[in-house]
Amino acid sequence: MMALVTVLGEERYGISTDQAREVIFYQHPTPVPRTPPFVRGVVNLRGQILPVVDMRERFGMPPREPGYIVVLQIEELLVGVTVDDVEGVETVEDEDIRPPSRMLATVDNRFLRGVVQDPAGLLMILDVTLGLLREDEVRILGEMGQEADRHAV
Amino acid sequence: MGVYRWSLFRKIGLAFGILTALMVVLGIYVVWQQFSGLSDLERLNAAHEAYAQTVFMEDAFYGYDDQMNMLVLAAEHARSLIAPTYRMAQQDRQEFWTAWRWLYDRRSTLTPQERGLLDGLGGAMRAYDRAEEAVLSDVHRGATASAFAMQVYGNVSPSNALMAGLSQLRKQLQADSQAARTDQLAGVVWTRDLTVAGTVLATAVAVLVTVWAAGYFSRPFLWISAELAKVGEGDLRAEYADEAATDEAGAAKQALVRAVRRMREAVRVVRDEVMQLAKTADVLGEQSSQSQAAARQIATAGEQVGRAAARTAASVQSLQERIQSLSESARQVSLGATRQAEFTGRLKEAAGTLSQTADQVSQGAAGVREASDAVSGSAQTGRGLVTELGGVVQSMSGALERAAREVETLSRTAEEIDSVLDVIRRVTAQTNLLAVNAAIEAARAGEQGRGFAVVASEVKKLAENTAASTGDIRRIVEGIRESVDSVVQRMTEASQEGRRGTEAVRRVLEAFEQLEKVLARMEGTARDMERASSALEEIRGPLAAAVEELSASAEENAAVAQQMGELADAARRDVGEVAAMAEETSAAAEEMAAASAQAGSAADRAEGALDLARQALQRVLQAQAVFRIGGEGA
Question: In this structure, are residues B10 and B213 in contact, taking their beta carbons and an 8 Å threshold?
Fold first, then answer.
């Protein structure tokens, strides 16, 4: 598979290009009232409303101004997640992915699909639909998008 | 002293014994009455204790009653609290049930979420059922406890009859204790009255007995005391009749009578003897007076000789002293003359030294003047040089400031380079992002995007290289800026140094001015010194002549003093001989005076002794004259 390599704190996380659509510079999200605490706000992506989830807060890491927003596609829904840095796209062979060790990541093991060793070091493969966003959260985000579209109309 | 059948002390003892026995009987009776009240006190205590126990029992019963009441009330309260909650829970469950049925009827068409909700509702209802069961069992337990409490309370109620009995018993016991207390109080009052009456009676009897006994026992002693007072005054004339003694007082009376008789005899004998002694003393007195007169004449003659010798010795001594002081004066004069000669010598030397010093001062002053002239010249030259130095320092400082301004321009240029670099960096970052997005798109396109992915990776590499170069340039510019900063700082320091140099030059010029002033003053002083030394030269001649004259007169003084000393020594030798002779005469006169004084003092002592004897006789006569023994005139 092909993975987009992102950096959060000291650790590198890979996101499959099936789910990662695009990377944009971080822009400050506009806060939206009555949204769950994991949503930072929304940004305008070429006329489309994009809800932004703060990954540092999600993973319980100390807060910091992020560098980029990775645009994810989950089914029909577009969601932005904040990351510190982006390295690029690299090929990861499925047989190289090993199950995650409890000692490895700051991130809850629920969100991990596995770990790969590449020339630059350890790369943790994130599974977005498995646990990065729970099902109910995905639903809420979807409703938010529709509502925003309605308001826009 | 004999032993009497009715001795005085036995009589006193008997009287006080009867009195004591009377008191003891009375005391025992009173104490007996006091203790008879004890049985009443015991009865009182018992009644009180019984009363206290009934009160305790009553309290316990009432407490039990209260607890029962509270138990029943608590059970009722718990039931009333649970009831509304229970009702609300049942309503909730009803609503769940409606929702669940609605969903269950449409179970074939449900989405996964709705199916989850159906399961959740089932679980919630089961939980509600469990909670209801628990609540109902609690309510049941509460009701059981309440019923049991009621039952117990019903069993306790019949004990009200017992309570009434207890109350009755308590009242009776209270009455008993009251009666016992009244009885005891009456006994105490009676005992108190009896004690007061008995004490008054006993005191009256004791006073009467004491007054009678005092009169009876004191009578013989009063008689003895009166008779002794007469004897004390010297009256021994009383005659007493002999009578037999019956007790100690009678014996004392007889002893007094015998003592008075004996004293009368003794006084008579003493009086005769003293008369005889007085006559003998008078004869002795006359003889002693005669011998004393002779001794006194001898002593007077001796004293006159002694006084004459002493006067001679005193005169000689005073003469010796005067000669001594004369000799001392001569020596002082001689010493004075010698010192005068010495001083004159020193004066001469000093005059010589003074003359030499004046020459030296004159030379020194000339030297000072030359030196100050030379220094003044150097100062002028120095001042010119320093002024020139000041100009150089100032122009250097100006050049430095100009250089600093140019360097600052360089620093601004570095900042401009920095801003250009920022633009490059932003463009590079965007290029990089573009490359990443292109790579993502290529990956999503799969096999068709392979070539595009290669291009994207090349673009990314390019962007990364640009970023690295930008970083290098930035570091170089940063280095340039640091160097410029340090150069600016050094120049500022140098410029400050230049200002400090100018300041130093100004201070040096001031110092030169001061130096010139000092030199002018020094020249004035040198001129003053020259004038003083020439005045000294003028008085040198007259000073030497005066010193010569002084020296000659000192020598004459010394010769006169020598002669005076020799004369004084001769006079001292002559007077010494006269003094020796006067001492011999004086010694002879002293021996004579001592002999006559011894004779005189012996006669004096004899006369003194006789006087003492006579005085003693006189006192004896006076003493015995006090006694009157009757039957005689003298």
Answer: no
Q: Which residues in chain B have Cβ-Cβ distances shorter than 8 Å to A17?
A: 440, 443-444
Buried b / exposed e along B142-152 (16+ C-beta atoms within 10 A): beeebeebeee
Flag if B440 and A17 touch (Cβ within 8 Å): yes
Which residues of chain B neighbour A21 with C-beta distances below 8 Å?
A: 440, 444
Asked if the C-beta of B494 comes within 8 angstroms of chain A's C-beta atoms, the answer is no
Residue B443 sits at the chain A interface (C-beta within 8 Å): yes
Q: Do B444 and A17 touch (CB under 8 A)?
A: yes
> Which has the minimum average pLDDT: B21-35, B235-249, B433-447?
B235-249
Return the number of other C-beta atoms located less than 10 Å from residue A5's C-beta. Answer: 20
Q: How many CA atoms lie within 13 A of B527 on its CB side?
A: 6
Task: Determine the average pLDDT of the residues in B426-454.
Answer: 87
Each residue of B483-537: pLDDT tens digit? 878 877 877 787 787 778 778 778 877 877 777 777 777 777 767 767 766 766 6
Q: Which of B429, B439, B444 sits opposite A88 (nearest CB)?
A: B439
**Burial zone of A94 (CB within 10 Å; 0-12 exposed, 13-18 middle, 19+ buried):** exposed
Confidence band of A125 (pLDDT split at 50, 70, 90): confident
Q: What predicted TM-score, i.e. pTM, was given to this entire model? A: 0.36
Nearest to A45 by CA among A58, A31, A32, A29: A29
- Which amino acid is present at B364? G
- Counting every residue, how long is chain A? 153
Residue B205 has pLDDT above 70, yes or no: yes
Residue of A17, A20, A25 with shortest CB distance to B433: A25
Tokens of B618: 């006189």
Q: What is the pLDDT of residues B376-400, one digit of tens each?
A: 776 677 677 777 777 777 777 777 7
Residue type, B136: L
Tell me the three state secondary structure of residue A123.
strand
Q: Which residues of B fall within a CB distance of 8 Å from A89?
A: 436, 439-440, 442-443, 453
